[in-house]
Amino acid sequence: MTETVVSTSTARPGTAAPAPAPTARRAAPGRLRALDGLRLVAALMVAAYHYGGRGGHVTDAWGSSPQHQFPTLHTLFSYGCLGVQVFFVISGFVICMSGWGRTLTSFLASRVSRLMPAYWGAVVLVTAVFALPVVAYDAVSPSDALVNLTMLQQPLGADRVLGVCWTLWVELRFYALFALFVVLPGANRRRVLLFCGGWLLASVLTRAAHEPLLDLVLMPEYAPFFIGGIGLYLVHRDRRDAHGWGITAVSFLIGQHYAVGELWNASDPDAFAHRTTFGIVLVVALGFAAVAAIALGWLSRADWHWLTVAGALTYPFYLVHEHLGWVVIHALHRSLHVPSAPTFALTLAAMLLLAWLLHRFVEKPLTPRLRSALSRTR
Questions:
Q1: Ordered DSSP codes for 128-180
Q2: CA-to-CA distance for 135 and 130, rounded, in angstroms?
Q3: Nearest 5°: CA angle at 260, between 257 and 262?
Q4: Phi then psi for 132, rounded to 5 degrees?
Q5: With contact defined as beta carbons under 8 Å apart, do 280 and 82 qualify?
Q6: pTM, two decimal places
Q7: What's the N-to-C CA distance of the chain in angstroms?
């Protein structure tokens, strides 16, 4: 959920790009704007889940359960949490694309400069808003707020400023594995295949062994989505790559199993909404299918500039939408008595506007400077 979609050029620096086999069909280099649009769709799915597909603090914001606010839509909204899995498939695709041909220093500089400016801005903003006397939600302690600036609050046991930051901790571990086993020795097809196969097998064995440390490192419940995205990038490079298709297919089959195991709740009579196994599998399948369509070039005509803007807003929107959305919902619905549907729409619009402000005044000035500083070699 933090990626920048970059050029699809596949040549290593200092080497000539190999000529494609006569039977292989390769996608033309260029920006994959459809991927930017898909990222925003995934973010809006997660926002729908946070505003109308679950209980918790958002119930305080609405004044009653979202079940009552959206009696016909709350079950549909409850599937929005699967937007995270879609993000992870996109992340696997884009990280493999952006790490191909890069040095470790360049890769790490790109990731840190992409993640941190908006994240720092969001942490400071949410901490400041929650500290206001008129806001009814508890702020974290000053010490925990400072720890949150490192993005390592979860392993350190500190309270989280941003509810969604648990996914960033998952992303960080993926970046570390990819950097160590692919970028550091130099990305090529064989190494990527070994990485995907090895990680997938190790994650399955880890789940069977019930080893907490290995579970922490290898993330078996999320690994198939990242690996599936990497497989689809191999397909993007050569759509007849049987190994890439195989990795993608196995990743989907294992990933949907974990998603159903985590989210199917028909046996819980007190569940907010009862998701079906078919619904969960369908959303996961649609996520893989959408990235596959982009990888195969089927959505290449979706090349509108506004999709680039949408992609740029996705990350800051994702960071701020949950906790600050509570504040906006409370103000609109409970203080100003705006009906539920307009409140939902206006809250999304307000968070998109805030995301644009963070992108314009935080990310744009700080990201290139941070990247440049981290890319310097001594």
A1: HHHTSTT--SPPPPHHHHHHHTTT-HHHHTPPPSSTTHHHHHHHHHHHHHHII
A2: 6
A3: 110
A4: -70, 140
A5: yes
A6: 0.90
A7: 32
How far apart CA 196 and CA 211 sit, in angstroms, is 21
Sequence letter at residue 361: F
The DSSP output letter for 11 is P
Dump pLDDT digits (tens) for 4-14: 444 444 343 44
Q: Which residues of 21-55 are buried (b: 16+ CB within 10 A; e: fewer)?
A: eeeeeebeeebbbbbbbbbbebbbbbbbbbbbbbe
**C-alpha distance from residue 343 to each of 46, 51, 70 (Å):** 17, 10, 12
C-alpha dist (Å) from residue 367 to 6, 119, 127, 370, 374? 15, 11, 22, 5, 11
How far apart are the C-alpha atoms of 199 and 225, rounded to whole Å?
Answer: 12
328 exposed, middle or buried (CB, 10 Å; 0-12, 13-18, 19+)? buried
Per residue in 75-132, pLDDT (tens digit) is: 999 999 999 999 999 999 999 999 999 999 999 999 999 999 999 999 999 999 999 9
The amino acid occupying position 247 is I
Q: Are 106 and 74 in contact, with CB atoms under 8 Å apart?
A: no
